[in-house]
Write a structure and sequence with these properties.
Order of helices and strands: HHHHHHHEEEHEHEHEHEE
Structural class: alpha/beta
Number of helices: 11
Helix content: 40-55%
Distance between the termini: 63 Å
Mean pLDDT: 90
Strand order of the largest sheet: 6-5-4-7-8
Number of domains: 3
Radius of gyration: 25 Å
Shape: flat
Number of strands: 8
């Protein structure tokens, strides 16, 4: 039994450390996934706290994973992990069987697995943690000196919270989204020649004389008023294939003209400054950015601003920041935060290919 407990202890610990570190690469990704659940459940008031919850949950995964392995406060952490896994199993089960959440995001955007695989992974993980919980009094720390075990866990905590702080003020260490360096955004907006939409089967539940019966879309009794509609459920029977990775990237000018293709297919270098919420945007290094705009203009390199506020608000900040000579375009806020995790951030394109991305702390001082 001792060997089995060691195997489970290390396996569970490593899985949680891995899961936490993968998500620490992009804490905002988990934040947006939490917001998706909150919106579906009608708990929009929790959105204001989702970033803090995301940071804490990522930190807890790494800390508890280390505690599992070194055995520091094992009984406490295994109890907390059991409760957390039961909750995660509920979440992934809800995502799987309700069909309202497309992806659970348990390993962030870099490692995507289906809702089905995620749910059964959580079931297996909960079973493993339950065994550790039952035999928790047989698990002991690796080192006899508690200070050593505590130091290992503490160093892990400092690392994971420090890594998240760095990412939130800059950009993810590894960009896994369609707008990453090396991608051609315009090409990513095109579906494959043999693309197919997902196929769904819909089941309808009707009630008559107190008896409920299921029907398909071909035989449901819509003409018979004695049957009363109860509910419906759609299940994907064939996944979509070959669809475009980018669906809703659009840059619209002040005359409401779509300039997306013209900008993304332009030859040579193009700068786009992504500005999500001007009123709360970080204003660090605006002088560096302004100098870069002037150098780009001198070299004939187009410089645009993609703003996710109303045109009137964008115009106010365009004038306040002395950018009257810089074209401002509107872009959807959700797309903006997917393209650029920081608010604001700069992108450099060459022949439509993303060459580089910078946060507001790292604007370049020289043009290509």
């Amino acid at each position: 039994m001792k060997i089995i407990l060691w195997i489970l202890r290390v396996a569970v610990g490593l899985l949680f450390i891995f899961s936490g570190l993968v998500k620490a690469n992009d804490p905002l990704g988990l934040t947006y996934k939490m917001n998706e659940f909150f919106e579906v459940w009608g708990m929009t008031f929790m959105i204001d706290y989702s970033l803090g919850l995301s940071i804490l949950m990522i930190g807890f995964e790494v800390i508890s994973g280390l505690a599992m392995i070194v055995g520091n406060y094992f009984r406490l952490y295994v109890t907390l992990l059991l409760l957390l896994n039961i909750f995660f199993t509920f979440l992934t089960g809800y995502a799987l069987y309700s069909g309202k959440i497309k992806e659970c995001g348990c390993f962030g955007d870099c490692i995507k697995i289906s809702n089905t695989a995620t749910f059964y992974k959580d079931v297996a993980l909960t079973a493993a943690v339950l065994i550790l919980f039952i035999f928790r009094y047989r698990v002991f720390p690796i080192f006899n000196k508690g200070a050593i075990n505590a130091t290992i866990v503490a160093l892990g905590a400092v690392f994971v919270f420090g890594a998240q702080w760095w990412v939130l003020h800059r950009l993810p260490y590894h960009d896994c989204l369609p707008y990453k360096v090396g991608n051609n955004i315009w090409e990513k907006m095109k579906p494959a020649p043999d693309a197919k939409e997902a196929v769904f089967a819909t089941t309808f539940v009707y009630e008559k004389n107190g008896v409920k019966q299921e029907f398909t879309s071909e035989n449901y009794p819509w003409k018979d008023p004695s049957w009363k509609f109860v509910s419906s459920k759609s299940v994907e029977i064939a996944p979509a294939t070959g669809l475009s990775e980018i669906h809703d990237f659009a840059l619209t000018d002040s005359d409401n003209v779509d300039q997306t293709q013209a900008i993304l297919t332009a030859k040579g270098y193009v700068y786009i400054w992504f500005l999500r919420q001007p009123d709360i945007a970080h204003k660090d290094n605006l002088d560096v950015l302004r100098a870069l705009m002037d150098k780009a203009k001198a070299k004939g390199i187009p410089f645009y601003v993609a703003c996710s506020a109303g045109r009137d608000i964008c115009k106010v900040y365009q004038e306040a920041w002395n950018m009257k000579d810089i074209p401002f375009f509107t872009i959807d806020g959700t797309v903006n935060k997917t393209v650029m995790r920081t608010n604001p951030g700069l992108m450099l394109l060459k022949d439509g290919v993303v060459m580089n991305k910078w946060s507001y702390l790292d604007y370049p001082k020289e043009t290509p």
